[in-house]
Design brief:
This protein is of the alpha/beta class and about 475 residues long. It folds into 3 domains: about 120 residues, no CATH class; about 130 residues, Rossmann fold; about 160 residues, 2-Layer Sandwich (Dihydrodipicolinate Reductase, domain 2). Helices cover about 30% and strands about 20% of the residues. The strands form 3 sheets. Strands 6-7-8-5-4-9-10-12-11 form a 9-stranded mixed beta sheet. The chain is globular. The N and C termini lie far apart (about 55 Å). The relative contact order is 0.11.
Length: about 475
């Protein structure tokens, strides 16, 4: 066979395998959708949910696993998914990737159906109980609209979280159409996945069949939510205007049972970083905070580093995308430096993230300092952690540990991992992890380590908020395989 013929045969072989995997992924999409809508079963691959994902996204999620578990494709997971669809499952979270790796090492010689039935036996015959939890968004800015997208996407069979209303101040005539347009189109995150309609008469937005009442009000006291059929709801305040208990208590109106702030809170309010101190939230709590995007990005990393290596002290420097509270061009601003043009300057500013870490991890109180530089990018930020450790380590030891944490531990939805030499900030737009550890940038010098953590300060943070709301509402999933409790 000539060289040309060999290359053609090789090309045909690769193309044929690709088309086969594409076909399997296409077949998987409705199966994954039915499991989610009809039985509240979330299917994932190494922590990344496959619900509402495209063919290419499903294939890419499988490809990512190569760095820890070797080659994994839809050819491995498809038979297991078929077996799941044949079972009478109750609500659970099934990691097909991990199950496929375990099945590959199956010493009993079980069929895929026998293996899956054994692994998910506790969920067989379980049924959903209770009614969905109503959610109200107070404010409809960057975080509010992303939360709306996530809640609509995760509506599933309707027995989880249900976005019932958003509360805003009426700006101008045509306000409702403008709000709907901002939800439909996003310059950073792209178009809304689905359909959006406007009910002008009843002042509502209908997104993928979700009827969302738009309530116009100037103050929390102006709204009686029970008048709109909203009861025992969780209200998410994403305006950042009210930050203490007295201010946030104003939201506890008829129909609202709990209030969450999407910013660091003042006073005795719990600041929660999901995956780190989420267990501190109780059903008796009425008001909590989801801390900040930076606190959510760095706290999980600092927690696992402190538990595994120990941590003497550290400094956190964040290179942060500009935000809406800065000026586009030079103008008056009450804060130092933030009045200067956000799109033309790097702006040194303060951050409370280092101190806020101690609210979620009291063992790190007094060990961290922090500062921030706002830069001319609209989204995705970078935290640089300069850490002093109690013993000498190597760069390989640090990177290997963080890779295992990101792919195999219970922190896999908080900590992601990249080992690419080419990634830049825009590659992390849409990342749903709280932070992404950049192994190529790691610097270790004896007792000192410099670590780089990327984070989508909009989407990653919104996902963390959604996870807290879900947990606080009492929604929980049995995980298969069982999630590792500790590192």
């Amino acid at each position: 066979m000539s060289t040309a013929e060999s290359l053609k045969a090789l090309s045909d072989d690769h193309f044929g395998r690709w088309k086969n995997r594409e076909a399997l992924a296409e077949t998987m999409i409705p199966m994954i959708g039915r499991l989610y809508r009809e039985r509240n079963v979330v299917v994932a691959v190494y922590g990344r949910a496959l619900v509402n994902r495209s063919v290419i996204q499903i294939l890419k999620h499988h490809r990512r696993v190569r760095m820890i578990a070797g080659d994994l494709s839809v050819v491995d997971t498809f038979p297991l998914l078929q077996a799941l669809c044949e079972l009478d499952l109750g609500p659970c979270r099934v990691d097909l990737g991990k199950l496929a790796i375990q099945y590959r090492q199956n010493p009993e010689g079980l069929t895929p159906a026998e293996f899956v039935r054994r692994e998910v036996a506790p969920s067989l015959g379980q049924k959903n109980e209770g009614r969905p939890t109503d959610v109200v968004l107070y404010g409809f800015g960057r975080i509010g609209r992303l939360l709306a997208r996530l809640l609509i996407e995760k509506a599933g069979g309707g027995d989880g979280l249900r976005l019932r209303a958003v509360v805003v101040r009426k700006a101008t005539e045509g306000d409702l159409q403008k709000r709907a347009s901002l939800l439909r189109r996003d310059s950073v995150h792209g178009p809304f996945e689905g359909t959006i309609a406007v009910d002008e008469e009843n002042e509502a937005i209908i997104a993928n069949g979700n009827y969302i009442k738009v309530i116009y009000a100037n103050n929390p006291e102006d709204v009686d939510y029970s008048a709109y059929g909203i009861n025992d709801a969780i209200l998410v305040d994403n305006t950042g205007k009210l930050k203490d208990r007295a201010g946030l208590s104003r939201h506890l109106r008829p129909g609202i049972a709990k209030v969450m702030l999407t910013a660091p809170a003042k006073g005795d309010i719990k600041n929660i970083v999901f995956g780190v101190n989420g267990h501190d939230v109780t059903q008796d709590d009425q008001i909590i905070s989801a801390a900040s995007c930076t606190t959510n990005a760095i706290t999980p990393v600092l927690k696992v580093i402190n538990e595994h290596f120990g941590l003497i002290s550290g400094h956190v420097e964040t290179v942060h995308s500009y935000t809406n509270d800065q000026n586009l061009i030079d103008n008056y601003h009450k804060s130092d430096r933030r009045g200067r043009s956000a799109v033309l300057n790097m702006v040194i500013t303060e951050t409370g993230a280092a101190k806020a870490v101690a609210k979620a991890l009291p063992e790190l109180a007094g060990k961290l300092t922090g500062n921030s530089i706002r830069v001319p990018t609209p989204n995705v930020s970078l935290a640089i952690l300069n850490l002093a450790l109690p013993r000498e380590i190597t760069r390989e030891e640090m990177n290997d540990f963080m890779r295992d944490v990101a792919l195999s531990s219970r922190y896999q939805r908080q900590i992601d991992f990249t080992n690419s030499t080419e990634v830049v900030s825009s590659d992390f737009i849409g990342s749903r992890a709280a932070g992404v550890f950049d192994a190529q940038a790691t610097i270790v010098n004896g007792h000192h380590a410099t670590l780089y953590v990327w984070y989508d300060n909009e989407m990653g943070y919104s996902c963390q908020v959604q996870r807290i709301v879900e947990y606080w509402s009492g929604i929980s999933y049995i995980a298969y395989p069982a999630e590792i409790a500790d590192i």
